[in-house]
Structure formats: C-alpha cells, structure tokens
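tool=predict chain=A
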Amino acid sequence: MVSSADLSISTMKRLTTITAVATASLLLMGCQSKRDICAEYLANPRPDGDESLEYISDYWQRLGISAETPDTHSDGLEGIEAFCETDSTST
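tool=predict ok
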C-alpha cells in the first residue's frame, strides 16, 4: 500500500519537473532572435486584417528598433520590412 507521504513526494517531484520545463520554455521565448521575430512578422503581417498600431508597436519593441513607432500601420509595416531586410543582409 502507498502511503500519503509517498504520494506527496511523487507529486512534488512531478510539479518540480513541470515547473522547470515551463520556466525553460519562457526563457527560450525571451531569447528569440531578431531573424526569428522578422520571419514571424513577415509570415503574418496583418493577422485577421488587423491594421492596429499596437500590433506594429509590439514588433517594433521586440526587434529593438530605436526609432519612434510610426503614426500609421503602413509606415510601421515598411519600417519593419526595411529593418528585417537590412538585418538579414548584415548577418
């Protein structure tokens, strides 16, 4: 028969493993390369026809573009495309 102490230890080991995997996944997501971010954006520049500046601003920040976020979606799109093209030719 399994005691409650054995179940608690087994559960804690399982939770520790799950927590470690989740933490590693979050850290890897934070280390996404600019090339990966560019590919992600260029694969879907207007999700659901969305032309919000919030979407552009998110990618602008993730790519580390130092210029101010543009006032229009199309200017932002052009800026990201130009950045990604320049970044890919420099690596």
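The radius of gyration is 21 Å. Residues 4-30 form the longest helix (27 residues).
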